[in-house]
Each structure stands twice: as C-alpha cells, then as structure tokens.
Amino acid sequence: MIAESEEPAGEDGSYEVTFGEESGYEGGPLQVDIRLTHLPGDDSEDGVGLGQDAVQLTVGYFTFEGEESSGEFNYRMPENFYCKLLESLGRWVICGHVLSEDDEGLAGAEVQALDADVSQDDPIGTATTNSAGRFLIYYTKDDFDDTPVSFVELELIGGPDCYFKVDYAGQRIYDEDQADGRQQGRENRGHCTCVTLRSEEVRVDVDPEDTPVWTSVYEFDIRTDLTSEGYTADGNLQVFGGAVPLRGNVPLTTSSDDPLKYRFLAAAWDWPGGSPTASTPPSVLPSKSDFRPVTDIARTRVGTVIKPGFNPEPVYIDDDDLDPDGFVTLQGKSVEIQDPSGSTQTVSLSKDNFVHALDLMRINTRALTPDPIAEFQRDGDGDVLADQPPSPREPVRRYRLRFQVFKESATPDKGTDDGTLDSIVFDNTPIMAYVDLEQLANDLCAEISGSVDVEYTADHPHLKNFDVVIKDNAGTVHDDTDTSLPDQEYNGSTSFRGGHGTENVDVSGDDPCAYEVILRARTRHHPSRGPTTPNILYRIC
Questions:
Q1: 315 and 350 in contact (C-beta within 8 Å)?
Q2: Phi/psi of residue 123, each to 5°?
Q3: Which segments of the chain have a pLDDT < 50?
Q4: Each residue of 246-267: pLDDT tens digit?
C-alpha cells in the first residue's frame, strides 16, 4: 500500500490521499480501494451490516498524466454491484419517489413500508421524503421475518412482499393493503427495490422546490417524533448536542424571482423563579422577546451546483454566510467549480444551477447551552473526595426553535412563524464520572492483597448506563456478575442519573498481575457517543 486517506470520506464522498518519496511510488497506475465501515441506515457500532468486519473493495485504477502532481478520481458504484454488496451484508434497501396527482414530488411526506405476511404484517421501516419527494429505507431480514411464533419462518422464499402507506400534512394520502404486497413486482423483493407512489389525493399547483418547509431534526419529524418535553419519542428519550442538523427546504427565490433569506431563532425554557434546578425540568415557556437568532453554525452542505461541462460541486455554508440577524441568502452566493481538466470558474447560485440537499443549517448547540455548573467536590489538597454525589447537579436544558423565511429586502419580525418546535433538549455537559481505590489513598504504588474498596461516582442529566469492571491484560476479571460492582441501565425514567458509593471486591484469588478498574458511562445522546471511561491501576504481587 502506497498511502491511505488520513480521514474518512466526507458526507459527499470526497477524500484526499497524499504521498511522497517515502511511499516508493515511481509512476504508473494506482489501484484505488475503499473500505466500508458503515452503510446508510446502519446505526450499529460494530461495523458494516450485522456486526461483520469492515469490507474492502477495489473500485478502479487511476493514472497521473504528464508532470501532474495531483489529480482527481471519481467513482460511482454501479447499481447491480451495490445490490450484490447489500446482499452479501444481509441488508435491503427501498428507494422511492412520492408524487402528487400532477406528478410533482411531495416534500416532507411520511412513508411506511410493510411486508405482507400470513399471520401479521411486519413494519419494514419508515422515512421522510426530501425536497424532491424521494426517500430511502434500509432494513435487514429481521425487519420482515418476525413472527409471533419464533420457530416458524413465514418468509420461506425470497424477500419481503412490500406495500406502502403515505401520510402528508397529517392526512393519509396513499394507502395500500396486504393484497398489494402480493401483486407481481411486489412479491419476494430482492435487496434493491425502487417504487413510485402516486397519490390521487394531492394536487400540487407549485413545485415543492418553491415551498419553504422545516421538516426534521436529524431524521426526527418536528411534528411527531419529539415529545412535549423535548425528547425523542422513540422510547429512548434521546437528547441532542454538538452540531445538530435542521432539515427541510427553502427555495432561492419567490415565484417572482425575489431572493429569499432564512434563519432559525432559539429561546431557552426557564424555571419558576428563574433558578435552575436538577430536580425538575424547566417549565416556563419562552416568550417572543426571548428568541435570539442562531448565529453560530457548523459547516453545512445545503446543496450542489451543476453546470454543463463542469464537475458537480457541493455547496456549503458556515458562519461567514450569516448576516448579523442570522439569515442565509443562497441566491447569488459565489461558488468555485472545476471542469475535468482542472480549470476553475466562479459561478453565482441560481435556481437554474442549484440542487437542494436536505440540511438547512447545522446549528452549534454549544453556543446555546451555558457552561456546566456541576463540578467534583475536592479536599484541601485539590483531590476529588470519595463517595460524593456531584453538587450542584446539572439541570435539564430545554429550548424552543423557530424557523423564518423572508424576502431578502424585508424587515424581519421575531413573531413570524414558518415552523416552530416548542421543545427540544440540548445537552453539552460532560459526564461526572470518577473511580478510585481506598487502598491507594496514601500510596498510588501500594501492592494490593485480599480485597479492594472501589469508590465510584457517575452522574449526568441524561445518563443511559454505567458499570464498573476490573480488567487485566487478558480481559475482564471482575464485573457485576460475580461482585457487588454496579451495572445500572436507564429504565425509561428521566430521573435516572447514576449513582455513587464504595464497593468491596474480593481479589484474594487473583494472580499476581497489573489490574485496571474502569468506570464506563454513556449518555442518551443522538447520535450515540462513546463512553466516558475514567480508570485507576493497581497491582497484585
């Protein structure tokens, strides 16, 4: 191998590989491989597909020409090849298009895919259409092979028998039944299925691209997928932090070609009396005057600029694209594009060359949430005290978001509402996690015998789970199954925060070795975050 990309490919599939004399490359064709660790729709933490190792594929060959010191390699995986890859990984995909009666794509439609079974209909998956009315649903065999009788396989041959239901603006506009899943072309679908769902219930007099709409936070619909308290309504009560994508569509101009600008406003819920408390969530609804423009955003891909003879170029926005009131105006934005020979040209965005992506803006929630107020209690020497609950505890931070679209020349008004999410929880506080041994209080190099007293603390407003284990080089030696070490999991209550205490562990039977005590704690963030793992070492001689 000559070299590999130092960073994974970006959201648009772009990558960069740099190599020099030390690589041994002396010219000639280069074999280009890609290594897949996850696929779209795959939220597992252990690799591609169903817990398999990563997959490496040769996708083509690239040759530098003449004296070039840099070049570009573009690759689009053929459909049949991708379907075979999905088959090898045990995954299926449905790609679809939801159309109105007059063949216009419907943005923000909720699509449900089902499998027609003998005894029950298995929900395969759901998706929200993008600004063009298109959707993707990835799924596995488990999603259409569930039965009430675990030892009976009802899908005896092939794949699922697909049928669909579509909701739009709160109304059922397309409604198939089980018989539709038994029709030719729908039975025993392979690993790739493409469908067009046309509704006779909706007629669109204007292109959906001309309709401003804020539809979701990540994949969560702002109308149905968040609770009134601001958590995800999927049963996991997840929260958000860091850079959070707000998705939907805003056209570049009105139908009369007036440039449009859009922004988001945010306001924090408050507590009665104004003092934060960890025992109760904030319950005072913010008023119109409390809203402030979101002016701190992460780099966001908002679309693609296309011009004949040039390579498609992703279009990004960041803080520099916001005016002082937090507005973005895409019409006329300058973007540099490149032709296949490498020559560049600057173009201005217009409805003739711009294709929308899904993200409107990725807001930096760290700019909205205040600094943490909780910190460990310490003794006079600055050492963390044992057996301590963090005090004061971090409260829940709850926000209200408002979406606004105006003509570029218009004077904005905080009260104008093109979409409001009354409640969403943003959390950027670290886990308060600590572990120590009483036997090492006076000498960190003390030798251990007999037993150890493990002191631990774990606390967070949205803790998912925590446990304490003792490991050596070969793996886990002690956990909650053979000691009194804690292993606690979120049980559906927003009051679950963790615990603290001291547990005595018998290590008299352990071999002379070096050991590590680890506290593992994870929060209920979406997307999932890696665990916090404070540790301490000891040895048995």
A1: no
A2: -65, 125
A3: 45-50, 147-157, 205-208
A4: 999 999 998 888 999 999 999 9
